[in-house]
């Protein structure tokens, strides 16, 4: 971990539910325009990390620092307005609002009243602006989550399993979309199971298992790491041999 | 016709209809209706109560229709309004119309005090508000507070009785409540409330200060109930605590709102006028039949029209429009 100023610093974050330590001293630094993959098997603490950073859960210890300002335990709307946003594994659109109105909710709470059309265009949903949510596919609803996040002028977005269920063509389109976000300076933390997709988007990964960090570094190296292989593929670790 | 074009056409038709049935019409029709009704039906007190129920149903609409929180203890604000305005008249000789406004502020103040109940959700919130309102009733009706609230003996406002003024105030409250709902429905505030109703956490990630927005809706709703209670007390003239802290007031207001359709401007008005008329036609002479009809109405609503009469209407209207677009 470097001492230079970073965009988002997650410092030894621990989250406890009753007697269960769902997240144990997880740390991560991310710079503007950087993309980091967040991987791990089910129950490893990926979503808990996202929820804790985004203010849904209060951490037992540790700190979250955005551009030098500590925001640990702040309320979700303040964290979102400060510049950290997210999408959801199961998309959560406002079902009684149109696509346009969904993004408008974010836009009216942004500092500069961002362009709703602009946010929709960036996720290729501009043509569906007047559609009701019931007309959208699951993949389109996930992109709507992204558009809502974009309308709040985020600095960091946690992208939660955006690629699940997409065709190869759609995967490529989404990867290009995320690269465009990066090029505009938005940092991405991509929660994903699909390694092929991650390879297109991220340069490094943070691997979690049972709430603990078991690897941080380049994705290629992670795929060769014995502990990572053991966690994903099962079997005995030879780390101690 | 491609699907996209079809939906755009439907949306445009919908917005035209919305423009036609404007908030002004939604306000003026019931107001003029009540103003004329007195010339057709002479029971002014009954019409006053009907207007009060329209306002109460609209108050429930703001709370439940736009935030999804069902306030079973809504009668608490009603009772507080009746007592605050009654005591303001008796102790400070305030003109009744001013006392009604003070009663509304009393309801809102109690709403603010009870706002920590928002930590609860769903049925727990509904039961929590019910318990809180029962607690307020117990305090107000306590004989040891007779020097302040007159305890179980209620208030006598006979010196301030003016049926015409009370009726006029009830009509004004109908207008206020419908204007409030129209504002909420068409404003950014309303958009935010609808987002909260769909998913509070998702709304907060869209930058919405969920507790604050919900609190404002709660205050508006409580103030309407407070003013409704004030007018009820004034029009009734002599009332006891159990009459204004009556849980059936909440049940009726909720059923009226649901029957008409929450989240709309017209729904609660239609629901309150129709069902309160049925209540007076059958409920007073044959209360057992009314309970049966009420029970059936609630079951049918839940099963076939969870969005109320207006939802039913919109469903068929949309089907007809879709058919027309397809034929074109």
Biggest interface: chains and residue counts? Answer: A-B, 36 and 24 residues
What average pLDDT do the residues of chain B reach?
Answer: 89
CATH class of chain B: Mainly Alpha
Strand content of chain B: under 5%
* Tally of individual helices of chain B: 16
Note the quaternary state here. heterodimer
Structural class of chain B: mainly alpha
| Integer-rounded radius of gyration of chain B | 20 Å
CATH structural architecture of chain B: Orthogonal Bundle
Give the strand content of chain A: 15-25%
- Here the CATH topology of chain B equals ABC transporter involved in vitamin B12 uptake, BtuC
Along the chain, the helix and strand elements of chain B come as HHHHHHHEHHHHEHHHHH
Low-confidence runs of at least 5 consecutive residues of chain A: 236-241
Q: What's the number of helices of chain A?
A: 9
* Main sheet specs of chain B: 2 strands, antiparallel
Structure notes:
The complex is a heterodimer of chains A (241) and B (328). In chain A, strands 6-7-8-3-9-10 form a 6-stranded mixed beta sheet, sandwiched between helices. A 4-stranded antiparallel beta sheet of chain A has the order 2-1-4-5, covered by helices on one side. In chain A, 34% of the residues lie in helices and 25% in strands. Chain A is globular. In chain A, helix 3 runs parallel beside helix 5. The longest helix of chain A is centred in the last third of the chain and has 16 residues. In chain A, a hairpin with a 2-residue loop joins strand 4 and strand 5. Chain A has 2 domains: 171 residues, Rossmann fold (3-Layer(aba) Sandwich), CATH 3.40.50; 58 residues, no CATH class. Chain A has 241 residues and is an alpha/beta fold. With 328 residues, chain B is an all-alpha fold. Chain B has one domain: ABC transporter involved in vitamin B12 uptake, BtuC (Orthogonal Bundle). Chain B has 16 helices and 2 strands. Chain B has a two-stranded antiparallel sheet with strand order 1-2. Classes of the chains: A alpha/beta (241), B mainly alpha (328). Chains A and B meet through helix 2 and helix 3 of A and helix 1, helix 9 and helix 10 of B.
